[in-house]
Amino acid sequence: MKDAGFIIASYVVTFASIGLFSFAVLRRSRSAARDIRPEDRPWS
Amino acid sequence: MTTRVARDRVTGTPFTRGLGIVTIAGIVWLVIFGLFVTPADVNQGETVRIMYAHVPGAWLAYLAFIVTALSSAMYLWRRTRSLTWDRIAGASAEIGVLFMGISLVTGSLWGRLTWGTFWTWDARLTTTAFLFVTYIGYLAVRNLGGTHHQRARRSAVLALLAVLEIPLVHFSVEIWNSLHQEASVAGNTDVTMDGLMLFTLFLGVIVFTLMYVWMLLHRQRALTLEDMLDDTGLDRALAARRTEAGVS
């Protein structure tokens, strides 16, 4: 595939950014949840 | 405690877990179709494959910013005023900035291959960069401090102003002479794109939308937890001060 480096880089940037963002969100919520009881969470 | 938190899955529900599985399957499908199954373009050759990440990224950024504006309006309207709307607005803006950043980077890589440069001060690129910076400013304003309702009010007003930039970005290719091509699908009644390419583009939009919903639910719930933590922290500080002062 011609220009494969640029094409693959665009997919890597896209899905790596989304993956990192999702990981950061889950990590932050896990750390915030330590002091909050599960029954106090409106969605649980 | 850590084990219990991990087992609770904190912001997850059966719905978000199911959505996550469907989204991952969709991503795999999109990558296979985008990189290997769809044909090369007559004019752009293989570089057109970047479109399946770039275009859905840009559309989802628009969607996320519009959701931010609508949620902000719901917060400002007295009958529906709730901090939940503010948290949805904030979560959606963060995701919008992420997708806009992805669109700028993938567009830059695509531009290097088709125009010979990573960046040029073209109308579409410049207005998009301006929109990106505006929403980074919006996120900064959200973190200025004050009570939750002060944060919600000032950021809601800003969100309603910032969303006005979206038509400017979208129509910039028609208003000014631009290197960037005009819309190939949206608003175009004479779509000449190959069927498989069009299908993969729509698949990209659907997969990115599913990702957006999954991230929005989790981020909004994470913001709820952070706000609850702020409130309990404040209650504890007040209780400690009262104890120090000898007030029962």
The radius of gyration over CA of chain A amounts to: 18 Å
Number of continuous helical runs of chain B:
8
Share of helix of chain B, binned:
over 70%
Poorly predicted spans of chain B: none
> What integer is the average pLDDT of chain B?
89
For the record, the count of structural domains of chain B works out to: 1
Strand content of chain B: under 5%
Tell how many strands the DSSP assignment of chain A holds. 0
Largest interface: A-B, 33 and 44 residues
**Unreliable segments of 5+ consecutive residues of chain A:** none
Largest sheet of chain B: none
Alpha-beta content class of chain B:
mainly alpha
- Quaternary state reads heterodimer
The amount of beta strand of chain A, in percent, is: under 5%
Q: Helices and strands of chain A, in N-to-C order? A: H
Secondary structure layout:
The complex is a heterodimer of chains A (44) and B (248).
Chain A lengths: L3 H30 L11
Chain B lengths: L1 H7 L5 H24 L13 H26 L6 H32 L8 H20 L5 H15 L2 H11 L19 H51 L3
Note down, in words, how this protein is organized.
The complex is a heterodimer of chains A (44) and B (248). Chain A has one helix at 4-33. With 44 residues, chain A is mostly helical. Chain B has one domain (15-182, 195-227). Chain B is elongated, with a radius of gyration of 22 Å. At the A-B interface, helix 1 of A face helix 1, helix 2, helix 3, helix 4 and helix 8 of B.
Characteristic key phrases:
heterodimer; A: 44 residues; mainly alpha; 1 helix; 68% helix; 0% strand; rod-shaped; B: 248 residues; elongated
Short description, anyone?
The complex is a heterodimer of chains A (44) and B (248). Helices cover 68% and strands 0% of the residues of chain A.
